[in-house]
Amino acid sequence: MLHEHRLFPADATARAIAVKLYETIKDAPIISPHGHTDPSWFAENKPFANPTALFLQPDHYIFRMLYSQGISLESLGIPQQGAIGDPSAAQQVDPREAWRIFARNYFLFRGTPTRMWIDYAFQTLFGLNERLSGDNADEYYDIIDKALQTPEFLPRSLFDRFRIEVLATTDAAVDTLSWHQQIRDSGWKGRVVPTFRPDAVVDAEYLGFRENLVELGKVSGEDVSSWKGYLNALRSRRAFFKSMGATATDHGHLTAMTADLSLAEATALYERIYAGRLAPGDVELFQAQMLTEMAGMSVEDGLTMQLHPGSVRNHNLKVYQQFGRDKGCDIPSPTEYVRALRPLLSKYGNEPNFTFIVFTLDESTFSRELAPLAGHYPCLKLGPPWWFHDSPEGMMRFRETATETAGFYNTVGFNDDTRALLSIPARHDVARRIDCAFLGRLVAEHRLDENEAFEVVQDLTVNLVRKAYRL
């Protein structure tokens, strides 16, 4: 199913160079500094229940496509939640029947990166070379299910097999990080680290925001009823995350808006937020102020700061109410950066101890806004194509639009941003092939010397990500 020269240039000269470049990095270790895999997998190291639980149910790239064709999430066994976000009993569905639905509709993924990722896992991990379909669904299921019962397919074994050097999860600010502690206590050598994600205690419209603030005060031992106590609570939690191996924070806001309010203004704003007496615009202004506050904390503690703006979350309210967050119904929105980031960058953009990685779902901003910003501010780096643009085309567009202004060295390599464990090596392989294809073309066009291309591809694969995330 998978051609050895897939994704390389059609031009023979550029393709030959890309192939040589790829040979030098195809087996390089995987550094995954931003993702959403479940740390309990590695803490407990239990077998995955079945092929459906491994491939289908954690991966919203898969079930959002099936849902778009009228296939219910219930039929796929996607766990349901109540409106307040508490897990209820998972829909009782035969996992084999859910797999059959997936197999019968596998044609829907033609031409998508999802198809390439899944085929990669089928072929490289299970030796399955015939295209998945309704006719061979049970054969596929049985082969994968049998493999999952062997020690080679336990989570830690897969971690080692994939040559993962470090894997970062994404964790709420109030998380106890008990799974991470269990990993540490086990003596296993695999490096799985948390990432500090404070959205649930920063976004006043986040479901359960008030309860989250109470929990923040409890776990930090600080009085979060005051602005000073709230900031101290966040500093305390950041220090705890750092003690558990965290090297980064992550912030998922609707916009990239930042603010730099006076102490009196910030105090009054927080008092309104805490009391629930919100004036128009307070929710966004508070998030904007908190991005600048978090930048200042990163200057203090050295944690790399990531911003993932521009997603309208839970666009399908019916799905959100029934199944909860992160169920494939978040939609990209246009995002402005130049004016939005100015307050933060004016205050901290020249700090030598600050690394600020900005992502976008609005590709039009790469050449117009983000690459020029990253090409100037010492702190600012461009995150790789994210989410809907984590594709061969999206990666190539990124290199073409960002490199001309920001170069290679104001980017941070690749991160897979996935909840699906088996897609990690597949996603990194695609990114490496696209980088080799882009560099091969530059060499073929005499825009880059070949010896330079060999240096750059090593940097894009491992060196830049290690530096940016302090790994």
How would you explain this protein's 3D organization?
With 471 residues, the protein is an alpha/beta fold. It has 2 domains: 12-48 and 154-468, Metal-dependent hydrolases (TIM Barrel); 49-153, Orthogonal Bundle (uronate isomerase, domain 2, chain A), CATH 1.10.2020.10. Helix content is 49%, strand content 7%. The chain is built from 19 helices and 11 strands. It has helices spanning 12-25, 39-44, 51-56, 60-68, 95-104, 113-126, 137-148, 155-161, 178-186, 209-220, 227-243, 263-275, 282-301, 317-323, 342-348, 365-374, 392-406, 423-444, 450-468, and strands at residues 30-32, 164-168, 171-172, 192-193, 196-197, 248-251, 304-307, 311-312, 331-332, 356-358, 380-382. The strands form 4 sheets. It has a 4-stranded parallel β-sheet with strand order 6-7-10-11, with helices on one face. The protein is globular. The relative contact order is 0.14.
Condensed summary:
The protein has 471 residues and is of the alpha/beta class. The protein has two domains: 12-48 and 154-468, TIM Barrel (Alpha-Beta Barrel), CATH 3.20.20.140; 49-153, uronate isomerase, domain 2, chain A (Orthogonal Bundle).
